[in-house]
Amino acid sequence: MFGTYFYNKNIRNIVILFGTIFNDISIRRVNSSNVVQEEIKVPIAYGPSEKFLVRLREATDISKGKIGLTLPRMSFEFTAITYDPTRKLVTGKQFKKAHATDHTKLTRIFTPTPYNFDFNLSIMVKNSDDGTQILEQILPYFAPAYSVTMNESSSMDIKRDIPVIFTGLTTEDTYEGDFLARRALIHTLTFTVQGFLYGPTADIGIIKEVDIAKYDETTQAALPSANRTKASNTDIKPDPTTADVEDDFGYTTTYTE
C-alpha cells in the first residue's frame, strides 16, 4: 500500500504561510514631542526562541566573527500536529482536473485529511513599549481566528481559506543577573492552523461512450401487456463540438429519442 512516492509540500506550505503573516511588522521610536525618530522593521526567522536568546547573550566580537543579536526580533516554531475529526470530509469525494498534456485523461486526487498544526510565535524586545507596539499590530486581527487564502495544491489548482486561530499568550521577563546581562522581554503567542494533507494524484481516463437501456414507463403502462415493447439499447456518444470543461466526462452528453 505504501511505497509510492509523492510530495505535495502541504506541511512546508503551511509553515511558510504562518511565517508570512507576520513578516511585515515594524515599530517606531518617537521623542517627547511625538516625532518619529526611527522606524524599525521587525525581522522574523524560523527557530526556537532559546536559540536566539543564546545569541543575544553572546558578546559582540567582529574580529572573531561574533555578532550579538539585536532586538526587537521575532521567531516562530512548528511544535505539533494532531488529527481533527470534527472537520472530516466525505472520504470518496474526488477533485478532478484536465490532464496537463493528454486530453484523453483526467488527473484526480481524493479528499484531503484534516490536521491541526500548532505554532509558537516569540516576540523578543528589550523594552516594553516595543513589545506592546508589536502585539497591537497582531492581536486585533484574531477574534480568535484569521483566515488566509492558501494554494493547497498547485498541480490541481485547489485554493482554500485556512483559519489561523489564536490560542494564548504568555510573557517572560529575563531581566535578571548582573549589570552586564542584557534584558530580553519575551511574549510567546500560540496558534493553531487548521490545514489539510493531500494524498497522491492519479491519472484516469474519461468516459467517451455510454450504453443505456431506455424505457418509457408512462407510455408503456397505458398499453395492453401484449402490445408493450421491451426496453431498447440506445448508444449515446458525446459531441466533441459541445465540450464542457466543467463536466467530469469531458463532454456534454446529449441524445434524441
Report what the structure shows.
There is one protein chain. The chain is mainly beta and 257 residues long. It has four helices and 13 strands. The strands form four sheets. Strands 3-4-7-10-9-8 form a six-stranded mixed beta sheet. The protein has a three-stranded antiparallel beta sheet with strand order 5-6-11, with no helix packed on it. Strands 1-2 form a two-stranded antiparallel ribbon. The longest helix has 12 residues, at 10-21. Residues 247-257 have low confidence and may be disordered.
How would you summarize the topology of this molecule?
Blueprint (H helix, E strand, L loop, with lengths): L9 H12 L4 E5 L5 E6 L2 E3 L2 H9 L15 E11 L10 E5 L6 E6 L2 E13 L2 H9 L8 E9 L4 E16 L11 E13 L4 E4 L4 E5 L2 H5 L10 E5 L21
Parallel strand pairs: 3-4
Antiparallel strand pairs: 1-2, 4-7, 5-6, 6-11, 7-10, 8-9, 9-10, 12-13
